[in-house]
Amino acid sequence: MRNVSSGPARLAFVLLPVLLSLLLAALLVLAVGREPLEVLQKIWQGAFRNSRSFAGVLNFWIPLTLASVGLFVTFRAGLWNIGIEGQILAGAIFASAGALTFNFPPELAPLQLLLQILLGVLGGMLWAGITGALKIWLGVNEIFGGMALNALAGVWGIYLISGPWYPEGGSAQQSRPFLENALYPALSRDWPVGLLAIVMTAVAMVLVPLIMARTRWGLQLKATGSNPRSALLLGVPTTRVAMSAFLVCGALAGIAGSYRVMFTYGSFRPLVAGGIGFLGLLVVLLSTMKPLWIPLIAFVFSAILAGSTRLRVSLQLDSSLAGVLQGALVLVFILFQGLRQRLELRRNELPRMPHRPPAPPRAA
Amino acid sequence: MEIELRNIHKRFGSVHANNDISVVFPAGRITGILGENGAGKSTLMKILSGFQPADRGDVLVDGLSAQFGSPEDAIQQGIGMLQQDPLDIGAFTTLENFVYGRPEKVLPDWHSARSDLEERSAQLGFDLEAETPVERMSIALRQQLEIVRLLALGVNALILDEPTTGISAEQKQTLFAALQQLAHRDGVIILLVSHKLEDVITLCDRVVVLRAGQRIGEEDMPAPGETDPATLNIIKSRLVHLMFGQELGPHERQAVPLEKTVLQLENLYLRDRRLQIEGLNLSLRQGEVIGLAGLDNSGQGLAMRAICGLETVSSGRVLLEDEELTNRSYRHFLNRGVVFGAAGRLEEGLIAGLTLTEHMALVRSERAVLDWPALESYTRESLQHYDVRGQAGDRIEQLSGGNQQRVLMALLPARPRLLILEQPTRGLDVESARWIWQQLLERREGGTAILFSSVELDELVAYSDRILVFYAGRVHEVPDVAATTIDELGYLIGGEFRQE
């Protein structure tokens, strides 16, 4: 559709950064005195040695993909939703409030589950909605509003576990553990992962891009994100559109947050968001706004993160090495994107041949 | 010092902005550079002050060829330019801005800088205070600072670009007295870029007139203090002739019966950073075309935007067929058939990155789920009908300006009540411009009222039923458009409201 580079050049721009960042990572590993291939092998084993480790990857992939899909929406509307981290946390807090309050009889457990997820959605939407309202009506940039609300959600979480949700006889690291009813059922013993959550993630990753491409709302988002002034003049309700983008992203972040407490931890902890939101920003940036890439990139990130937890056991390496590797990957990739844009710009400055046949002569 | 420009050429795409301009600026004289918008004044001055190079031609300083790679180069060789928006740093104080930009010192000598500033300020009759932050100063004071700063850098030639826009009459007097002192006592070369007749006649020793990129002529100005109205009128009339060229003959105008009032403005007060408009009254009837004349930034843009909710109205009322809509959002107006079209098409109106079909879908699709194939064929038909050279799948920025304007026409609702158009034919060739007007007049016959601004005098005279002239926020209605001439309009645009 675009006049980007030709096929081979384009492939080079995808492969080169991957190779380069692998090289960089290898050098880093060598610098700490280990075999790069061995580290890679251990990460691979950590992620995929059996069904339980694979489920661990999925448990990270679910919230990361949900958050990334949400961020795809806000990015499309031209918004830097840094506040996603707080939205995940708010979702987790709301879902936890449900989990610690309700205790439905076993036959109504699915209802309780849904209710908690819904609360999580509400929490995420509330946090995103505040950011949106600050931006739209008070002119507070969403980056600053988002940062403030991230901090606020964090403080609120800490207050909850040291006050109202303080576990009896426990330490103030986490809330009371949730009861069985309040948790996502695992797929099986060998596959400890929430099936319903996988389904919701799959639906989101297919449905959201489809809605963006096929509906008037999606087009309005794109118009508002590209040029809000022109969009307004063309009759787009730009404030409503921006607000709706925040709310949709908040809802997806809320589901992500609820999954973290209702499955991964089984209790509330202040660090449940765990940087997933920020990682989601990177996922969407790397996808260059091509939504089909989002689940794949999220999967690679999840595999590296989940796999590297074994590095400490097997190689006495701190698992934060994975974060460093990931950082190197992102850096190199973004560098290449910038390079590519510059090259394209330079090419476009040269006189260009028209891509389509000349229009028929116009009648006078 | 003497500056000479020899055979300067500068092209921007197809526009020959400076076409073989030669002129000499001797020491100790104030020269006015006069011309309407697009005449090439700013281009020439930017070449002279190192902001951009000429394509061909020479700049000579004291007979020696000079090469300016940057504004700093020009300043080092003694030529400094005062921009319309002074290039100072808001959070810094007057003194800090004064020192900033001096090349020679790592650590500024604050004490001597301060006495230098105060001395120069007092000499020129300025009231600069060393410790006032620039962001709290008026444009006039910031100009004074910039003048003093450039002089302290050793500049012997000062170029001022429209310096009297946005300053009061009193401040203008101070500025002019200082400039006269600099030229006639200290021998500084002063160049005043302006479109205001009154200013150049009061201040300048002589005036060079540019039109359509060429140097058209030059006139000596009367001695300062000349008050004989007859003499002044002769000079004005000569300058107007030089600026605008031949008069148009009387033209044909179809009378459309004007019906009920569509838009009514009652005592509007509007304000932006540069100017304010006080007590604007206007009523516009169905099928009426009102032209807003005036040079750029004389208040037309502010008025047009405030009328349809894109700028704030400080006081007064905007009535659309008896419904008060003062300060309602643009969407309110749009839903009632009021459409605004801005001069900057890709900044305000069209969306770079979106295809023509996507544009059409934004304004036409009533349904939540888009039927892309149907929208695309609709767009294709529409492009054919509006004679747009472009494909439905093209992104809008791939089209030429004329074709973009045609797309904007295609995007308009079928029967708007009121069209507010800022320079609807800006940058278009004659054929495209005529086509746009044909479209607009068709809509007018359907009862649409049109309010448009233009800097082309013949366009205003040809299509308007009434003309309002904007000059520094003041508004003056041309008494009888059918009887008006280009000359007369030229006077009004230059701020000479003497025909009243």
Topology:
The complex is a heterodimer of chains A (364) and B (500).
Chain A: H1 7-31, H2 36-48, H3 51-76, H4 84-101, H5 109-138, H6 142-162, H7 195-214, H8 216-226, H9 228-233, H10 238-265, H11 276-286, H12 293-307, H13 311-315, H14 320-349
Chain B: E1 3-12, E2 15-25, E3 30-34, H1 41-48, E4 56-61, E5 64-66, H2 71-76, E6 79-82, H3 94-99, H4 110-123, H5 139-152, E7 157-161, H6 169-184, E8 189-194, H7 197-203, E9 206-211, E10 214-220, H8 229-244, E11 261-271, E12 276-285, E13 289-293, H9 300-307, E14 315-320, E15 323-324, H10 330-335, E16 338-341, H11 356-364, H12 372-385, H13 401-411, E17 418-422, H14 430-445, E18 449-453, H15 457-463, E19 466-471, E20 474-477, H16 486-493
Parallel strand pairs in B: 3-8, 3-9, 6-7, 7-8, 13-18, 13-19, 16-17, 17-18
Antiparallel strand pairs in B: 1-2, 1-4, 4-5, 9-10, 11-12, 11-14, 14-15, 19-20
Please provide a brief summary of the model.
Chain A has 364 residues and is mostly helical.
Written account of the structure:
The complex is a heterodimer of chains A (364) and B (500). Chain A is mostly helical and 364 residues long. Helix content of chain A is 71%, strand content 0%. Chain B is α/β, with parallel strands linked by helices and 500 residues long. In chain B, strands 6-7-8-3-9-10 form a 6-stranded mixed β-sheet, with helices on both faces. The two termini of chain B are 45 Å apart. Classes of the chains: A mainly alpha (364), B alpha/beta (500). At the A-B interface, helix 8 and helix 9 of A face helix 10 and helix 11 of B.
